Amino acid sequence: MLEEELRDLVEKTQRLQAEQQTVEVKSSHEGCPERLYDTLSSFSNQDEGGVLLFGLDEKQSFRAVGVYDVQDLQKRVVDQCEQMEPVVRPLFTAGEIDGVAVVSAEIPSIDLAERPCFYRGKGRVKGAYRRVGERDQPMTEYEIYSYEAFRKKYQDDIRIVPDADADSLDQSLLADYLQKLKANKPNLAMLSDDKICRLMSVEKDDGVTLAAQILLGLYPQAFMPQLCIIAIAVPGVEIGETDEEGARFTDNKRIEGTIPSMLNEALSFVRSNMKVTTIVDAETGQRRDVTEYPLVALREVLLNALVHRDYSIHTEGKPIQLTMYSDRVEVASPGGLYGRLRVDQLGHTQPDTRNPVLATAMEVLGLTENRYSGIPTVRKQMEAAGLPEPEFIDTQSSFKVTLRKAADGAKAAREIKREAKNQRALCETVAEEDLLAFCSVPRTREELADTLGLGSKSYAISRYVMPLVKKGKLQMTDPDHPKSKNQRFVRISSRE
User: Fold this and answer.
1) Where are the alpha helices (DSSP H) in 283-387?
2) Across all residues in the chain, what is the average pLDDT?
3) How far apart are CA 468 and CA 447, in angstroms?
4) Which ranges carry the Filamentation induced by cAMP protein Fic-like C-terminal domain (predicted)?
5) In this structure, is residue 160 part of a structural domain?
6) Which of 236, 296, 312, 333 could form a disulfide with 305 if both were Cys (CB 3.0 to 4.6 A apart)?
7) Strand-pair category, 229-233 with 207-208
């Protein structure tokens, strides 16, 4: 950091009157702070690193009060950095502000494979911290485990499921899986089924693996009750809001079974709890349904949650949460992004795979391509539907995807406009003779609007039927009462 950059940082901190995610202020006017370990740990454990800013007094509105001794301060800070594991290497900058000395210590981020950085005096479990806003909070046991799992490449998807044996698997599903394996992998076709099951991690150490149970089990939740999806639909934009009858949920379902069955049932739940608009295709003249959210995008989001969630013992008590609000759909899965992947890299960088055996088995079953195309597909589907960009939130302990409706009815307006355009295009292609042929027998307003593919009866009659009445090609069956609900329109034969 240059001295000018130090001045800018001090000015920004004083202007904001607050510490930040990457800035911690210490007065240090009368001596070096004795316990910097928490902040050294939290800054080292976040991708952005952080800066310790010495010589400002938070209690005096972040006024520059100076440090007691620039040289001694740096020495004592380094002494504390050397008590961290791994050792922290700060970069110091000193400058004069308002006639007093201010010092910054830039704390670099450590590589993911070395995290968590912790204070050796407390040990890994009690001495590791994470930064939350302007505070340093102790890491949870799971957060520490998630780093260790990546560093040591734990494969929780092939851990043994206690009490599960070969009889707990659906033999028809297993036979289908083995058949597809043999068809796509000729080298496996020469082996016995038992050998294949061991090689492909269906069985391990005389037990059944989690991947096998969640893909091929008769009832996986008998052994892992919370490896399911809890799906709810709420009437408002927040949980707790109620409908006119006081109900907190308009639908509420626990979705269980294997991954393929949970995926299908979750999609059915979503479809049954969102509006579907029928529009007319301008090219084919056929009606088609347009859902509030693209089902292809929803499938990818749910599939990613099922395949890439954390299946460790730390999260096996946490289900996937599918929540439908009046303005959005949220899918939250246990476990944050795995490995080095960051939210801003989603869909652009090939990620590390948390559950490689499970992901490969899904590919064999034809349920996923396993080509890292899920996030790009979600983005493209939302864009094509005229909806906002999908939102991704990673908290290390969970990962949430949010799909939103267009704000302020913009989507509805676009759909109406698109439908009107399609209807006009369609109706312009409807030959007059086709309409006259249809009216060879008396037709109601509903029948005419339906054959024209129009949702509005009045528009169909005024735009397309009445002009033919004026031309003497159609006539009303009850001309004295043109607005009668029993009115019919029939073709005038050439003999008349």
Assistant:
1) 295-308, 356-364, 374-384
2) 89
3) 16
4) 442-489
5) no
6) 333
7) unpaired
